[in-house]
What we know:
Elements: E1 14-17, H1 24-28, E2 35-38, H2 41-57, E3 63-65, H3 73-86, E4 90-95, H4 97-110, E5 113-118, E6 130-134, E7 140-145, E8 152-156, H5 157-162, H6 165-188, H7 200-225, H8 231-251, H9 255-263, H10 274-288, H11 293-306, H12 322-332, H13 348-368
Parallel strand pairs: 1-8, 2-3, 2-4, 4-5, 5-8
Antiparallel strand pairs: 6-7
Helix pairs in contact: 3-4, 6-7, 6-8, 6-10, 7-8, 9-10, 9-12, 10-11, 10-13, 12-13
Amino acid sequence: MVAPISTVISPSRYVQGKGAISRIGDFIATIGSRPLVVVDDVVWDIVRGSVEASFGDAELPIERVGFGGFATPDAVDSLAATIKETGSDIIVGLGGGSAIDAAKAAGHLAGVRWASVPTAASTDAPTSALAVIYTDGGEFLEYRFFPHNPDLVLIDTELIAHAPVQFLIAGIGDALATWVEARAARRAHATTMAGGLQTETSVALARLSWDILHENALQAIEAVKSKVVTPALEKVVEANTLLSGLGFESGGLAAAHAIHNALTAAPQTHGLSHGQKVNIGTLAQLVLEGAAAEEIEDFVVFTTKVGLPNTLTEIGLSPTDVKDLRAVAEAATVEGETIHNMPFPVTPELVVDALVALEGLSRSIRAEHDLTEPEFYRAH
């Protein structure tokens, strides 16, 4: 029998700071000479001047392709074909998570290098060696794994400060799951998405992300509301993007993301962000594992103040939606899902019970702390 190994993976270079987009050409030029930039029209209108000037200074040509919608198999195949048609040697995913995931997947198919340039700190996906692929309707389809991480991740915190604040909040929801899932995977001695057991480094980064968010999230949210870059915002962007990215990939996923994936198939949740649905998964995981009452209370209080959902009501569901909850639970527990990295067997029945329980639990905690009443979400 082959002895188990521990491993950690990461992007080749991570760049973050106010005005970083003005240096994009410098960093891309060290990787390739014919970049293909994948970006939607809205984002391109915002960054075009900076990107064109920086590429010009670095003597790089600009080949740009628009992107809208989800990272679907057809979208990825189309981008891979464009790479070959243009002779590009690096693809740059610029903007939201779908554009970045599609760029990564297309770069892998075409055999070129790739870079992630997120304009929102809404997920930890930009740093990873995987892409989440969806159906045309936005339902989770599959993970695609690649042999290496992006050659570059560049994030301009001034762009983050001017993006809608709900993007930052969504990223906080995604990142909060990292430590909760990593510690569960550690107890289970689970293999991570990096292809081995955890390292002490990955576990420490997952915990650091959790600590930074609890200390800085509320200040960072206020900074974005005021469209300014502060030290708190810089810390939260790093926690949302780099620390959570390294922590989830090399630290391990568990129930929270499996429940998120299952929720994408529930039409009631369509229109909600990745981080909003992950936050429901994180609380459900805490209930599943019998976490201490104080920890659950702190999580509900904190995420309510941040503006994340922690009741079924806030994602368009109800404890009485037995059929829908059962469908979510069954999807979350299919063979190969990360919920099986929990340190005990998880059945659909256990997931349904946890989802039903969190409604009353969160409502009672919020009432005790004079926090806002949950508002029913209606899908767009």
